Amino acid sequence: MAKYICTVCGYEYDPEQGDPDSDIASGTPFEDLPENWSCPTCGAQKSDFEPHEE
């Protein structure tokens, strides 16, 4: 599963970890995040993220 980077602050969403602070379970692909999910660091919208391939 691809990781995604916030273009505003650089936060990396890792689907293997999810986002426990927002009740997003580990193993949740970025595409399956709710549309109203926002960056836990800066509050940017989901549309402000880009795929990050390592």
Structure description:
The chain is an all-beta fold and 54 residues long. Helices cover 0% and strands 19% of the residues. It has no helices and 3 strands. The protein has a 3-stranded antiparallel β-sheet with strand order 2-1-3, with no helix packed on it. The mean pLDDT is 96.
Task: Break the fold down into its secondary structure elements and pairings.
Elements: E1 3-6, E2 12-13, E3 49-52
Antiparallel strand pairs: 1-2, 1-3
Q: What sort of overall outline do the alpha carbons produce when their principal axes are compared? A: globular
Radius of gyration: 10 Å
As a percent range, the share of helical residues equals under 10%
Output the helix-strand order.
EEE
Number of strands: 3
The rounded distance between the terminal residues' Cα atoms is 11 Å
Q: Give the number of helices.
A: 0
User: Strands of the biggest beta sheet: in what spatial order?
Assistant: 2-1-3
Q: In what range is the share of β-strand residues?
A: 15-25%
Average predicted local confidence, pLDDT? 96
Largest sheet entry = 3 strands, antiparallel
Poorly predicted sequence stretches spanning 5 or more consecutive residues: none
Quaternary structure classification: single chain
- Structural class computed from helices and strand pairing: mainly beta
